[in-house]
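User: I'm putting together a teaching handout on how sequence relates to shape, and I'd like one worked example. Could you take 12037_t:CDS:1 from Ambispora leptoticha, show the sequence you're using, and then write out its predicted structure as tokens right after it?

Assistant: Happy to. First the sequence, then the structure tokens directly below it.
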Amino acid sequence: MNNIESIQSGEALVSPRPARNFITITTSSISPPVSTTSIDKSFTSKSAEKSIEDTSTNDYNTSTLTANLNGLSIVNTISSDDDILSSSSDEDFEKIDKEPYEDKYIKLSTICALDFVSTSDPSDISLTSSDAVLSVVQRIANMSFFLCLVSSFLAAVYAFFLCAYAILPWHLIYSITACLWGYCLYAQGNSLSLSNSITGARRISMGVTVIQGVAYLLESVMHDKSNNGPGPLSQTEVFSKNPFLYGGSMLGLPIYIVLEQILIAYQKENFRKQALLQYERENAQNAVHCLIDRFSERKGLYLRTIAKQLRNNTELAMTTLKQLSPPNFLSKPHEQLSACSIPIPTASIKAIHTAMKTVNYMSTHLGTLSLLLFTDNGKIALSRVKRNFDVGEMLQKVGDALAGFASNANVELVLYHVYYGLNHINVVGDEATLRYALFDLLKSILKSACTGACVEIGLKVRNSEDADGTNDDDLLDKDTVINPRDKVICTIEITHNFASSGLTPEQKRKSFLMNSAMQFSARVFKFIGANLTAEQDDDRQLFMVSLELEVGPPLEKPKAPRVNEETRKRFPHLRISGEPSIEDLKKFSRRLRGLRVGLHTKTNSHFARHLTNCLTTWSTDISHVPIGGDDEIGSQKADSRPGSHSASLSSIGSRQPSSSGNSENYEDNMNELANLPPTYVIIDDDVDTLKEQLVKLRNSPFQVGIASVLSARGRHK
């Protein structure tokens, strides 16, 4: 076997699978005890919490975006103390009003990403006094405005008094300059921005400086040529004696130039920050859009997965009803049959009930399924639900529920116990989740199977101490005692045997169930602590589900149904026997030693092979008769080793007694029985063969009675 693949949780796909496809009819019908299953689990998950905070800065009239995305966190809770170590009998459908995760459900689709983008033009930057740098620049500008105003005003007054109250052009120039500085000081805090105020002040200061410089040069030249004696002081002499008083506007020019350059550099840096902030806003907008798209994709995947699971599980019940109903009975109205009834096998009723319980499990565990679907493989927590259930009966119910679907797909479904014993043992675990995962996996396998294929489901239960380093053949001859509270390894072997012929390469390729088709199933198995592995070769696929469980209390013996008083009075001698227990069935299997069993089955039937091996381990003399062939039943010896998968279908002989003294009597008894019909007749789903055998039994009832007596005598000798 090649291409062995270990399917990690999350590397395998999921979908419900097929069921058993065989019917057995015996003269003595025996069924294993029926035990119901129950599950009540509460699994709470913290959903993804997303908080988006929008803060605005007053300095630049901008906003910043902060997004905190918290990942998924897993929290397992137990709904009540009754969930642990509670009995699985009389299970009802679970009724949960609302899962805890729904309280924290966040609708990301209500987020508008455009709300996080500022509508203001980044080029229109309003500089306010809230910034520290701008505050210092503004204070320096105001102080310089005030000093220039004071110096210009004092220069005008001083020149007026100095020139004997004569109004000269210089007086007007200083007065106008003082008014301009006063306007700059007033407008800077009201109508003009800081940038415009400093630019205007620089121009005023530069104009006053140019005027004073030109006037100073002209008066200096004219004073030297026209006046050589003492006289009144010229403007040049006055300016020379009081430079700070008359040159205040000129001295403020370098201050305004420096402030203007600082402001220009600051504005450039501010534009750069605005561009970076705008880029971050666009990224934040894209991130919000990505989150919304991701949420939509996850929501779509979740809805598709749940819809597929619901369709698969409801399809099980529909196909079962379709197999039990006459043709076109469910698709067309039949008013004339409204007063009629249809007999339905009890196994089919239980199958429909099991399928509906699976749908109920999905409806009450939507949060858990969503968590398993989107949680990373390494973060999947284990289920803490602990319930007592019969693992063998659970697998039997799964097979019954899938039987209708497998029959409709013309796929043979076989259930067997690996050691051909009765692996009905009470264990403690999450039965509902295990049943749901098996449904999903088996339904996927059945959907991929072609017509004529066979799906074998085997159950193997062994002690944990014997699981490592012990060969399966050695365990056959070893009497293993499993006590309550022991640890056992439950292994479910699922073998998908492809159709032997008639498959095209394309059909054979589609028959392989890929790992991508089991991802969800593997996640569900990991949730309950199970391990799913897969092996494949050219003509089959093998899936193994291994799960360690704790042994629960011994199975209770089924009780006989109660009879009401009215029925008891009408039928005083009526006695209703109870269901056989596992011990009763084991005792009956020991009573089959030496009895002749005739098996009517199809050639190359996988069911016949497993049934032959099982009856051989019970030391029965089994003879195989192909359906549609000769009715003569011969007895030939064959390999009777328990667990052998190579037993011949032509005939299987019984085991020889170990005592040499009884060998001759045993051979004599077998010779006497050679010409008699078998004690039990098993027919594999063939009505015509059943009719023939019933007619034969009716025509020769005495021969059957003699065969039973001689068989019993042969066993006791």
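A couple of points you could highlight for students: The first strand starts at residue 2 and ends at 7. The chain has a mean pLDDT of 70.
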